[in-house]
Amino acid sequence: MSEEENSGGFNNFKSLFIVLLLFIFIIPASKAQDENTKVLNDNAVLVSQSVPGQMFSGHTYRLFVRFRNTGTTIWTPEYYRLALVKDENSEEWDFKPIKPRSNVERGSDVTFGFQVKAPSAPGEYKFKLQMEAHGNYFGDDAGPSVVHVSGNPVNDVNPQVQAESKGDNSQFLMQIMTNEMEAGSNYEVSITMQNNGKTTWVKKDGYALGFPDSLLNIENNNLKFTKIVLSEDVPPGKEVTFHFTVKAPDAPGTYEYRWKMEHDNLFFGEPSDTYSVKVE
């Protein structure tokens, strides 16, 4: 065999060796890198929220926002947080970003509960919350976008309501609960009411948050719910938030939930907004 033939055979072997290296190491590594690039994306879906579109100046509100991690990353407390989107007059809100208490896995939900004090001056204020990581906002936003802030709640009570408030009266402020449930499962609910009557709601005198059948569709009559009593006295002009658990009906369907204050088994005041829940 000539030297030229030997050289050609060696070159062929060298080329084959390079091709094998490409298939064994370089191409799989490149694919893995592409896969990693594709899977590392942040996303969030708003599940439920309790952020009122109207507040009273200088008043403190207890809010709740629930997000679901629909991206392909894990939300760690080190890098992920709920933030107020910076915008026109957003600095008027005394809000600090909130970290999740623990890792939020892909497909899991996280609820942020926090207090917000409304700006001192009446007006229109932008208020939009969003998940944020590494300085970037992502996913759905929560909040009414714009909150109308009015004066002191005691002075701003509707004259007609004020005239009717010779005794017990209440105003519904906010609620939070999921709008999707699994049949027979338990879920946390929060309802906030304000005492805009003339009497103090004394916890030992039978004041509670009730669930009147007259406010529900007939299918809700089997809802497993116990009225929630006060944990403290609530004087006129003040608010109270009830935290409790409801058990979803056993039969799939769409159900309506609505609550109202009661005193000595008599309902009074403004009921909460009707909240439709899909049970599967």
Describe the overall structure:
15% of the residues lie in helices and 40% in strands. It is an alpha+beta fold. It starts with a helix and ends with a strand. The strands form five sheets. Strands 2-7-6-4 form a four-stranded mixed β-sheet, with no helix packed on it. The protein folds into two domains: 40-156, Immunoglobulin-like (Sandwich); 157-280, Immunoglobulin-like.
**Shape field:** globular
Might you state the CATH topology name of the largest domain?
A: Immunoglobulin-like
The total domain count is 2
Helix content: 10-25%
Radius of gyration: 28 Å
Q: What would CATH call the architecture of the largest domain?
A: Sandwich
Structural class category: alpha+beta
Poorly predicted parts: 153-166, 215-221
Number of helices: 2
**In angstroms, what separates the terminal alpha carbons?**
79 Å
Question: What is the level 1 CATH name of the largest domain?
Answer: Mainly Beta
| Strand coverage percent | 35-45%
Major beta sheet summary: 4 strands, mixed
What's the mean pLDDT score? Answer: 77
Q: What name goes with the CATH superfamily of the largest domain?
A: Immunoglobulins
**How many strands in all?**
17
Provide the spatial order of strands within the biggest beta sheet.
Answer: 2-7-6-4
What is the string of helix and strand elements?
HEEEEEEEHEEEEEEEEEE
